[in-house]
C-alpha cells in the first residue's frame, strides 16, 4: 500500500505541474476538443488503475520483495554492490520497455492493443495515460518476469515505476521547451519534441523514437529521428484510418483490438 501511495503521489504531482505548463506554454494549438479527449483518456486511466488494483497491481514490487527474501535472480548470484545492481536493474528495465514498445509496433497481435494509444488526434500529457488495459497487463507481466529473473530490488522497482509513469506524462506533454534546452535534454532523456515525432501520421516517423525515459536506446538501435518532416506545429497526429474524434469514444477504443480489421503501424488496413 505504501508503494502504491508513493507512486500515486508522485504521478499526481508531475501531472499537475505538466498540466499547468501546458496551459501557459503550449507547443501546438489543439486540433480537437481538449475536453472530449481528456474525458476519454482519463476514463481509460481510471479503468487501467482499477483493473491493475484488482489483478496484478503491485505484482512487480511484491515479486522483488519475494526475490530478495529467497535469493532469486542473477543479481543475488553475482552479489554485486547494491548501488551497481540498482543502476543496472533500472537500465535493464528501461531498455525492456523500449524493446516492448518496438515489438508493439512490429507484431500484429501487440499492435492491436497499442494502436489505441496512437489513435489520439492530438498529443498532450493525457496521451501518456491512453493505453488499453490489456496492454497494461501485458507490460506488467513482462516486468514481473524480468524482476524475478534478475532479482531486481524492491526500491529499484518503485523508483523505476514512478519514473516510467512520470516520463509517460512528460514525454507526451504539449509544452514549448526552448530548442537549445531541448537539444541538451534529449541526449539524456526523451523530451516532448523528440517523442511527438513518434505520433506522426507518417509510417516512417511512427516507427521511430520508441524510448519512454532514456533516449540512448533509440540512438544505439538506429530508431532515432530528430524532427518531424512537417515541423511540430504543422505535423498531423494519429493514424490515417482514424481521423474522426467523434468515433473514438471509450467503448470503441476498448473494443478496437478485437475487430477483424487490423490497422498496421505502416498505416495500411489489412485483414486477418
UniProtKB/TrEMBL annotation:
One of its GO terms (biological process) is membrane lipid metabolic process. One of its GO terms (cellular component) is endomembrane system. GO terms for molecular function: glyceryl-ether monooxygenase activity; iron ion binding. Keywords: Lipid metabolism, Membrane, Oxidoreductase, Transmembrane, Transmembrane helix. The chain crosses the membrane at residues 6-25, 45-67, 87-111, 140-160. It is found in: Endomembrane system. This is Fatty acid hydroxylase superfamily protein.
